[in-house]
Amino acid sequence: MTDSTRPFLVVYIVWHPNFAEGAGIAEALRKHFRRELYENVAGGTGLSVIFRSASPPEASTPLPIDLQEADTTAIIVLADSNLTVDPNWLGYVRGLVEQTESAGLCARTFPVAIEQSVLGALSVEEQAFRWDRWEGTSDERQRRLIGELTYEFCRMLRHYLEHLKRPDEDESALEGYLKKVQIFLSHSKHDDDGERIARLIRDRLHGGHGLASFFDVHDIPAGLRFNKVLLQQVRVSAMVAIHTDSYSSREWCRREVIEAKRWNVPLVVANCISNLDERGFPYMGNVPVVRLDPHNAGRIDFVISRLLDEILKAFLWRCRVELARKMIDPAVVFVPRPPELITLASLPPAADIPEPIIVYPDPPLSAEEERLFAQIAPRVQLRSLTEWLAGALR
To answer: Beta-strand (E) ranges in the chain?
Structure first.
């Protein structure tokens, strides 16, 4: 945030103009990463997504990509035979690969092998997404590509975040700081569905492409102090709350959600109610809720995809905060989601910081939410990120 107008992450999508399906795949990616989901941490209309397919007049390849225009850059190459048999385009893509490799942690190229024949020409067999091997319709393969790219962006930003914290250390030294992202599956063992669904989600995470090497998946063991587990292991973490019929009635389930909220853990609620919830637990709001039929595991992939989105948002936010570290007033408290009343529980004591400022992702809270905060905690000031950067006062 040394330059508030400079995007943190820009995504480029490259495909040959003769690849008929390329525009549809690129548009699906653009819609996902530019939609409201990422507006609050990226600003504007979400992540910047730029196409590179058309060439300027009298040119045989698209415009070059300037890696200096953003803090981090991801280049997605939809590689089919049209691209690999065109020497100009093949040279253009190879140049992009060399460019990102020399840039270090701030840039990566992600090839997507639409056909097996392209792997040899690009020399990217180990790194490529194997679209050519995936089963299902084009829409299903697009959803898988979105999920796997989100996962790879998480990996890239996790590494880059460590670089921001330790700018004087080289890439190989930073590897020692990278720990698996802890995934906690919070569930009730007092109905027929909670434990079974937790096991299905865990199995899917362990069986997914590369996820087991990135995620460490846990239940909260019965009788173990959750806050001890959270504080010791889950500073880079996420949670799925499996909301079955008995979930809200269980003390430990409620404590798990509250602790996750207090420590700003990325949280997704899987709504698995099969009959009714006698008392909806109020602190399960303000986070994404995905409907998951307790008797049909077909939507588990939607839960995992939404979890990946939340983890990526958390890394984007943490990177932006780290970039602003030098300009942060001690009275400023950053939170990665819109503040709610439970946010007040994490504030420093009034004796230490009499008038704290909570800075949160855009857009600003609604007027009725701000009025409630003003009544309950008049000493606390609320600012969206854009308002804070602009020096807005209330």
So the answer is: 9-15, 48-52, 72-79, 107-113, 181-186, 215-219, 237-243, 267-271, 289-291, 332-334, 357-360, 381-384
